[in-house]
Amino acid sequence: MQLVQVRRVGFAVVHDTIQLSADHDNIRTYALAPQSTTLDTVKTVAGQVKYLSPQLRAFEERRLSKQGGYFISDSVFRQNESSTLGSLLESRVPGLSVVRGTTLVSGRKHCRGLLFIVDPSARIKSKCKETGVSDCYVTIYLDGTLYYTAKMADEGIAPPDVSRTFNVTNFAGAEFYADGAASPAGMHSNDDGCGSLWLWTRER
Is the pTM of the predicted complex or chain greater than 0.90? Predict the structure, then answer.
């Protein structure tokens, strides 16, 4: 007498006993019943993003230090790839505004420099057009290189349309500093108090 077990992944095991004999053949047919297999729970923990470029590593160090500025990480960019850069920045960065969904300006002041007047009700009003000075456009750096500053507007160079010029899928990080005093060492810019935005492209 022999014990036989018939197995196959995804099916219940069938047990049978048969009597083996040299006098005749033993032919058996087995029908296996489907059976789902419950696997052990697998828990994974995503590690910290390991950037290769020195610029992105430095960005991540500043973001984790929490010593000033406003940051948008790679994971946030990836979660909002269907959004425009303008809408993403405006929703997550205090002190920054997007005019008509295209142009980045300071949310703290209207004009570049110290050009403003105060009316009797103590509300600040812009004198940008009257004085010929540009609006308080945010200074933009792309991978550490100056891309646009408010002074370019004085030369007739229009500010970039951030919702068309830049694609969210291209970036792994962004950081904004409301003025030069808030910028970390090595990132000071003459932004006339309009703020500076630093964009870092995604590694390929």
Answer: no
